[in-house]
């Protein structure tokens, strides 16, 4: 007989309705400028009929990535974006109705996946600061997974080595699998990936969508202990990552000057925007990541609407952000895009 899973039927989702054409998009934490066209043309020059016609082979790139990260292929599994890896880790290492502890607000797909598979996502209270005792104190023997972000999206909070060690010790005590999402690595270089390589029941997920500027290619990976990675890989469909994504990622790894250029462009754009806000008396928040919260002087939600309608710039508003109340969250890109946004903001926010 026909069947529809009620968890899916009752799952609330919002899908993006904005069209990109003619907009400067600063609402999805992408790199608005993308990769240099010269670099793109060079990578695409290797594309021929066989490249497109054959199923992608992942082993060569996984070896390249493992060497880049200082590990081996047994500790890595390629994914069609890191969100796929997050989904499989939750499926493999929690049970229906299992208890998952995570940060709220956070990347929304953590909670979506938890609800989708019948898990009990348990948030803890959060403002603009993060007290690790809030995390440690909520962990129990019936908790199956702890999900952390380093840095956290959307708040940009980060953990010190000492804080993460304390959290990890509490998780081990209760036999809890720990998942750390590092989608914004390189914007904030401190990483906990060594724990995924050296210890059991620790995973780190990463993506090539952010600093690597490959959101349109969909490529990410799971790092973990070999047996855990093997369990995650069992969920993967054959050839789940595409050849174009691996070709671009391999070229970036082989050409470190491209990565350095992307980092420097980001830093210049971020510093420009921060300097302008400081000089003009704007409060802002965002320790790490490629995004920043801005407390406006007028109505933030109206500014979002006017930015879209009058300036062709897409940004987001967030409510309940500590003493900021409802404020803007803006993706950071290279300086010319930050200049475009800033000039629009000072015109509209008065």
Describe the structure.
The structure is a single chain. The chain contains 14 helices and 13 strands. The radius of gyration is 21 Å and the shape is globular. The chain is an alpha/beta fold.
Write the layout of secondary structure elements.
Elements: H1 6-9, E1 24-25, H2 37-44, H3 49-53, H4 59-69, E2 76-79, H5 82-93, E3 99-103, H6 108-116, E4 120-124, H7 132-138, E5 143-149, H8 161-173, E6 177-181, H9 193-198, E7 202-207, E8 220-223, H10 226-233, H11 243-254, H12 256-279, E9 284-285, E10 291-294, H13 300-311, E11 313-314, E12 316-318, E13 327-331, H14 335-348
Parallel strand pairs: 1-11, 3-4, 3-5, 5-6, 6-7
Antiparallel strand pairs: 2-8, 7-8, 9-10, 10-13, 12-13
Overview features:
350 residues; alpha/beta
Query: What is the assembly state of the chains in this entry?
Result: single chain
What is the spatial order of strands in the main beta sheet?
Answer: 2-8-7-6-5-3-4
Element pattern in H and E = HEHHHEHEHEHEHEHEEHHHEEHEEEH
Count of DSSP H/I helices: 14
Structural class: alpha/beta
| Cα shape | globular
Beta-strand percentage range: 15-25%
| Main sheet makeup | 7 strands, mixed
- What's the end-to-end separation, in Å? 60 Å
Number of strands: 13
Mean pLDDT across residues: 90
- Unreliable parts: none
Q: What is the helix fraction of residues, given as a range? A: 40-55%
Summarize the structure.
The chain has 14 helices and 13 strands.
């Amino acid at each position: 007989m026909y069947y529809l899973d009620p968890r899916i039927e009752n799952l609330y989702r919002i899908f993006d309705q904005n069209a990109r054409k003619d907009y400067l998009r600063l609402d999805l934490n992408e790199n608005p400028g993308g990769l240099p066209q010269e670099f793109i043309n060079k990578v695409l020059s290797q594309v021929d009929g066989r490249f497109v016609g054959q199923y992608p082979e992942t082993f060569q790139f996984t070896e390249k990535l493992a060497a880049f990260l200082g590990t081996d292929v047994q500790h890595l599994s390629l994914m069609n974006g890191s969100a796929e890896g997050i989904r499989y880790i939750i499926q493999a290492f929690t049970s229906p109705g299992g208890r998952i502890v995570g940060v709220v607000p956070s990347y929304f797909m953590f909670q979506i996946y938890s609800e989708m598979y019948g898990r009990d996502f348990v948030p803890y209270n959060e403002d603009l600061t993060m007290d690790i005792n809030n995390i440690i104190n909520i962990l129990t023997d019936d908790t199956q997974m702890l999900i952390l972000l380093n840095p956290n999206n959307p708040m940009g909070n980060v953990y010190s080595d000492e804080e993460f060690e304390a959290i990890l010790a509490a998780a081990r005590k209760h036999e809890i699998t720990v998942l750390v999402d590092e989608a914004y690595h390189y914007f904030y270089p401190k990483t906990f990936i060594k724990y995924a390589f050296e210890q059991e029941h620790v995973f780190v997920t990463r993506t090539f969508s952010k600093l690597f500027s490959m959101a349109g290619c969909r490529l990410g990976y799971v790092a973990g202990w070999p047996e855990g990675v093997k369990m995650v890989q069992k969920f993967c469909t054959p050839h789940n990552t595409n050849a174009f994504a691996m070709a671009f990622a391999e070229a970036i790894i082989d050409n470190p000057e491209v990565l350095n250029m992307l980092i420097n462009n980001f830093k210049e754009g971020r510093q420009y925007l921060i300097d302008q806000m400081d000089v003009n008396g704007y409060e802002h928040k965002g320790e790490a990541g490629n995004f920043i919260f801005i407390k406006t002087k007028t109505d933030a939600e109206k500014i979002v609407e006017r930015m879209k309608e009058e300036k062709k710039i897409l940004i987001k508003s967030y409510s309940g952000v500590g003493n900021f109340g409802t404020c803007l969250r803006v993706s950071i890109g290279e300086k010319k895009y930050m200049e475009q946004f800033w000039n629009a903001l000072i015109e509209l926010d008065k």
